[in-house]
Structure to design on (692 residues):
């Protein structure tokens, strides 16, 4: 479908009740097989493979199929005027209405079976709280998903343009703006549209074409294991297998006893168990890396139509559209290993984004310079030095990193002396070693601490094993929260949190001095703090 | 403009009421799972707890009352609260999304109310406890009204 360039007339009657692709009928029953197979097999065993039990099994399968058909038949969706209606009607009727202007993003993903059949799952993010409020179309064809995506997002924008456009903010994201194509700007339709709309709207309107900000080359997938993501997958898989074995064993009548016998046998051969655990540990980086590669395969970040679109995945190809106007900043995450390799991951901080951990991801592991370049291009750069926190913060970091291990060392030493069992000395040595490593950890934690403001965006950074730097636009700050625990009061430091109506909700600068705790908010939002400062807080 | 209103009743009565409840609950804890030496002298626990918590019980309401402040000036709501951990919260009226006033049963007895000022972020939301009910109602209305006027779309 070609989409006209100008704002769409909203009253245009579009009455096309659409159904999901019938191919989805192939998916739902297959998905139910795992839960069905055990009762069916059990039925066959119990019934002794007689004609009767076959009949019952057939009835079970038939009911499942019928259920899928009914579910498909009663489900329809259509775009009515300026809203999307999702209907489920058999005897009772449920209509979910989503005003198009409320749509903040569209998330298209293709799980393996959908992929085989050329289908996709379309999730519509409305910024409402709770997953129940979101629209979900499970099983539309790929073309329909693309069409819907462009229609929904375009109409969203068109609906917004007709409202009084908001003033261009100084920190307006450049993604929608800088993509202006001269050809599109001279387009007559766009020009006529621009007559009615304000400057910022025009720019959004003309930023039609798609621009690829980055395509992550596959060699960078090798950084995957450094991220620590999916490292526990082997254990999860093993745990899942054991659980499944228990459950199926139970259902199929082997009983728990057999499983317990196996467990006891393993317990009596601890070296075998140890070997299994070792194998799993060795497998961690490999399996984790493979999982990472599968999920982040061919990662692309695109700026299209005022949206940031992130596409990724090998088997389940996922495309997440984030409205650029709602992106308030970004968070750069670096683990210890990642810092050593000089790579970083980036998440976007978006207002009203549900499930932001998976949806907000802007970049997988890429070299730091690239990460900064891309975020600068897609969202905006932060240009200022981070200010260090007072030296007392270093003492606090050191104390926290060392003290627990020292306490443990003392405890084990005492036990060793009292019980006269040399094995406790091992504990002491380990604890002392950990305390020693705590020194460098504490120092590094202190080095990570920092906050800063460059006139448009503020930044806070903390953490060592997982260092995270959040960069947030000034206008996204909804309040300041200063907190001081009893220990902090003794040390004369504060935790300053900028409340942000996006992402995690608040980003903290830990252990700032009193001067910074008051000075930083006063610097970022002078008009809020002025009345209180004049009186001398 | 500085608004210092209706703090006189806050805290003390409320917390002493709570403490009596806690003391009663503790005193009535004669369950059967307690170990042998303890079962002989069940009164040890309430006494121990009582001794440990009494200083807190005495000090906390006064400290909380002394620390708790709120102020609306220049379209920014400022609240301060805390006992061992102090908190200061600045919330500009323009970013307020909802203003809730709530009354627990103790607060109803005393004619007090709690005002919850919510923004899009949990870190930017604050609560003012123990306001005189009429003051809370008036403030809630005023804040809601001002927030309407100053509405700004950035979040």
């Amino acid at each position: 479908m070609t989409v006209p360039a100008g704002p769409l007339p909203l009253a245009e009657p579009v009455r096309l009740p659409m159904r999901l692709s019938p191919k989805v009928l192939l998916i739902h029953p297959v998905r139910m097989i795992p839960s069905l197979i055990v009762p069916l097999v059990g039925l066959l065993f119990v019934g002794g493979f007689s004609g009767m039990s076959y009949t019952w099994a057939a009835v079970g399968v038939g009911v499942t199929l019928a259920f899928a058909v009914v579910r498909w038949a009663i489900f329809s969706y259509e775009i009515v005027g300026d809203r999307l209606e999702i209907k489920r009607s058999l005897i009772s009727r449920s209509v979910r209405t989503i005003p198009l202007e409320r749509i903040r993003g569209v998330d298209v993903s293709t799980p393996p079976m959908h992929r085989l059949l050329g289908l996709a799952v379309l999730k519509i993010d409305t910024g409402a709280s709770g997953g129940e409020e979101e629209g979900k179309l499970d099983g539309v064809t790929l073309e329909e998903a693309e069409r819907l995506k462009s229609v929904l997002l375009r109409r969203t924008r068109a609906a917004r343009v007709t409202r009084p456009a908001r003033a261009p903010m100084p920190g307006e994201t450049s993604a929608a703006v800088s993509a202006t194509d001269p050809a599109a700007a001279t387009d007559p339709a766009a020009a006529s549209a621009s007559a009615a709309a304000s400057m910022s709207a025009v720019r959004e309107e003309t930023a039609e074409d798609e621009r690829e900000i980055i395509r992550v080359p596959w060699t960078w997938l090798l950084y995957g294991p450094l991220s620590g993501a999916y490292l526990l997958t082997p254990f999860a898989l093993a745990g899942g297998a054991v659980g499944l074995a228990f459950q199926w064993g139970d259902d199929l009548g082997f009983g728990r006893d057999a499983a317990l016998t196996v467990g006891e046998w393993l317990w009596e051969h601890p070296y075998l168990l140890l070997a299994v655990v070792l194998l799993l540990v060795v497998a961690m980086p490999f399996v984790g890396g493979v999982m990472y590669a599968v999920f982040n395969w061919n990662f692309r970040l695109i700026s299209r139509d005022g949206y940031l679109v992130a596409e990724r995945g090998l088997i389940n190809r996922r495309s997440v559209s984030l409205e650029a106007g709602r992106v308030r900043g970004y968070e750069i995450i670096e683990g210890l290993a990642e810092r050593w390799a000089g790579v970083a991951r980036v998440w976007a901080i978006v207002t009203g984004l549900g499930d932001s951990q998976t949806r907000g991801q802007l970049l997988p592991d890429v070299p730091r310079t690239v990460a900064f370049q891309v975020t600068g291009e897609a969202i905006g750069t932060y240009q200022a030095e981070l200010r260090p926190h007072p030296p007392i913060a270093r003492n606090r970091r050191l104390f926290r990193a060392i003290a627990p291990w020292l306490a443990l060392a003392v405890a084990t030493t005492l036990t060793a002396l009292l019980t006269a069992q040399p094995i406790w000395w091992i504990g002491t040595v380990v604890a002392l070693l950990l305390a020693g490593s705590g020194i460098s950890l504490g120092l590094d934690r202190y080095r990570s601490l920092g906050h800063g403001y460059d006139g448009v965006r503020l930044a806070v950074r903390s953490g060592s094993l997982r260092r995270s730097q959040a960069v947030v636009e000034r206008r996204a700050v909804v309040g300041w929260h200063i907190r001081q625990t009893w220990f902090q009061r003794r040390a004369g430091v504060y935790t300053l949190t900028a409340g942000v109506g996006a992402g995690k909700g608040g980003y903290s600068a830990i252990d700032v001095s009193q001067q910074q705790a008051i000075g930083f908010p006063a610097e970022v939002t002078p008009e809020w703090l002025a009345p209180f400062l004049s009186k001398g807080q | 403009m500085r608004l210092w209103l209706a703090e006189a009743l806050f805290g003390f009565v409320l917390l002493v009421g709570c403490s009596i409840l806690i003391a009663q609950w503790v005193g009535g804890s004669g369950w059967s799972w307690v170990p042998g030496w303890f079962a002989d002298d069940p009164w040890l626990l309430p006494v121990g707890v009582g001794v440990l918590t009494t200083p807190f019980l005495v000090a906390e309401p006064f400290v909380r009352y002394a620390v708790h402040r709120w102020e609306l000036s220049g379209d920014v709501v400022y609240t301060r609260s805390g006992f061992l951990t102090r908190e200061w919260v600045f919330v500009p009226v323009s970013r307020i999304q909802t203003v809730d006033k709530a009354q627990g049963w103790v607060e109803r007895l005393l004619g007090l109310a709690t005002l919850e000022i919510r923004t899009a972020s949990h870190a930017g939301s604050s609560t003012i406890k123990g306001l005189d009910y009429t003051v809370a109602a008036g403030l809630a209305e005023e804040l809601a009204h001002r927030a309407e006027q100053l509405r700004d779309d950035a979040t």
Confidence is low (pLDDT under 50) at residues 1-11 of chain B. The interface with chain A takes residues 71, 73-74, 76, 78, 82, 84-92, 95, 119-126, 153-155 of chain B (CB under 8 Å). Chain B has two domains: 12-64, 68-150. The first strand of chain B starts at residue 69 and ends at 73.
